[in-house]
Design goal:
Blueprint: E1 4-5, H1 22-26, H2 29-32, E2 36-41, H3 43-46, H4 51-63, E3 67-72, H5 75-85, H6 100-123, E4 128-129, E5 134-138, E6 141-142, E7 145-146, E8 150-156, H7 158-166, E9 170-173, E10 176-178, E11 184-187, H8 189-199, E12 204-209, E13 215-216, E14 219-225, H9 226-235, H10 245-256, E15 261-266, H11 272-278, E16 285-288, E17 293-297, H12 303-315, H13 324-329, E18 334-339, E19 342-352, E20 357-365, H14 374-388, E21 393-398, H15 402-408, E22 412-413, H16 421-430, E23 435-440, H17 441-444
Parallel strand pairs: 2-3, 2-12, 3-9, 4-9, 8-11, 12-15, 14-16, 20-21
Antiparallel strand pairs: 1-14, 5-8, 6-7, 10-11, 13-14, 15-16, 17-18, 18-19, 19-20, 21-23, 22-23
Helix pairs in contact: 5-6, 8-10
């Protein structure tokens, strides 16, 4: 399982990186230009004093030609109105039954919030529109309980939304929608956002909440594969906070229909949205499909990034220093660990066919991802590749991570004479005094 946890989270109201760091942002512009993000913002975030800052972040997206659909909730607004008017609220979020009194509160709250967002977008110079692009249908009677005026999405009018986005207009979608007969229904905003993400083939579905990401069993997650989260939902749904269940269900639904990434983060933190999107670590929790992280062969387009990674590693003597030309010449030996398009780790599988052995070298994991199992995955990959190519043994030379190879990867210490003659000479001339570790692939087999 490749779930990653957060050791700490920011609670001081500011994101870990400055959203004005243009160098960090511009690096991602080619990756996201022209793509569609569905942003779902809770009513509690809309009510927060920093909401205008969030709209400014969305304005940044538009200026970078990232297409945005904004879906808003009204849960907190419904509760506030209900308290003022003495209307009991059993469910303010559109998942449980909605009676006529609560429906009227939802309609009024939706109008107020939509008007507020429209006004502030206009002030920021962002064109937006409120389309009737969602058609709802009644949820009906579930386990004997009539859900009355609670609805679910029946149809997303994708062409209408596409036309608006193509014209540079941000669609603003509220959590009330009409059915075929024109009856207004209360619909869960998380479910609306997920359906829109699937229909528009969005690259990201982002939930902005009043929670710092998604905790599972009390442990805040950095990222989690969708399959792992599905198993948790099936086996132990109580491990997930009740107030985030709707977002998890909607995330999984969107990913099952082709959306690659869903994010859950605290939208009240200044710069949180820009940090989540434009920083490789992010701020909240990302739920991803299986291709989110991968080990793959290096490509010519990776050459400069690979050289910089090895150069940084060599500066601390973690790996042997390599010239740009030597890396270029041996690029086909390298394989990379990539997370969401970012280079996280590298290694090379160097063949010595005369002796029928191979070396796994230039193994390095970016500091933030060390201790998260990435290095072990890289060694297992090298073992499988070496075994598949018919090599009898795999060896590694290490000055700093020999205990990792010995205790975690189950290599055994070897001697200089165990190395191919060519590699002996390189080691002797380097002066690095590396420890030699060897693994017999024929006897140990390969990791699954």
């Amino acid at each position: 399982m490749s779930t990653e946890t957060r050791t700490s989270s920011s609670t001081d109201g500011e994101s870990p990186i400055k959203p004005t760091d243009l160098r960090g942002i511009l690096k991602y512009v080619p990756m996201f230009r022209g793509q569609t993000f569905i942003i779902s913002v809770d009513g509690s975030v809309v009510a927060h004093e920093g909401f205008r800052n969030l709209l400014m972040d969305l304005a940044v997206f538009r200026s970078l030609n990232i297409r945005v659909v904004l879906v808003h909730g009204v849960g907190q607004q419904i509760r506030s109105l209900g308290e003022k008017r003495g209307v009991p609220i059993l469910d303010a979020y559109g998942s449980g039954p909605t009676n006529e009194e609560v429906l009227q509160l939802a309609i009024e709250s939706s109008g107020d919030v939509s008007t507020r967002i429209l006004s502030q977008f206009t002030e920021l110079g962002v064109s937006c529109a409120i389309p009737n692009a969602i058609r709802a249908t009644e949820r009906g009677i579930i386990r004997g309980e009539d859900f009355l005026f609670t609805g679910k999405v029946e149809k997303v009018d994708a062409p209408v939304l596409e036309d608006l986005l193509s014209a540079g207009i941000t669609p603003l979608v509220s959590p009330v929608a009409a059915n075929r007969s024109g009856q207004i229904l209360r619909v869960n905003s998380d479910a609306i956002a997920a359906e829109i993400a699937a229909e528009l083939k969005a690259s990201k579905l982002i939930f902005l909440t009043s929670h710092p990401g998604l905790p599972v069993n009390g442990q805040s997650l950095l990222n989690v594969p969708a399959e792992d989260l599905r198993r948790t939902m099936a086996d132990n749904p109580s491990a997930i906070p009740a107030e985030l269940l709707s977002k998890v269900e909607s995330s999984l639904s969107a990913l099952a229909k082709g959306t690659p990434r869903a994010h859950i983060l605290d939208g009240r933190i200044f710069g949180a949205l820009l940090t989540e999107v434009f920083d490789k670590v992010g701020l909240g929790t990302m739920i991803h499909s299986n291709e989110y992280d991968q080990i793959r062969p290096a490509r010519p387009s990776d050459l400069h990034s690979l050289y910089n990674l090895i150069r940084n590693a060599a500066s601390s003597d973690a790996v042997r220093e390599r010239s740009f030309e030597s890396i270029q010449e041996s690029l086909s030996d390298f394989f990379l660990y990539e997370i969401d398009g970012s280079l996280v780790a590298c290694a090379a599988l160097i063949p010595y066919p005369k002796e029928n052995v191979a070396e796994v070298g230039s193994v390095f994991v970016q500091p933030f991802y060390q201790g998260r199992g990435v290095g072990l995955k890289m060694i297992h990959y090298a073992e499988r590749e070496a075994f598949a190519k018919g090599f009898d043994k795999l060896f590694a030379l290490s000055t700093q991570t020999f205990s990792f190879f010995r205790e975690v990867c189950h290599f055994s210490e070897a001697t200089l004479e165990d190395l191919p003659q060519a590699r002996q000479e390189i080691l002797l001339h380097s002066g690095r005094r590396s420890k030699i570790l060897m693994k017999d692939l024929k006897s140990s087999g390969t990791p699954s």
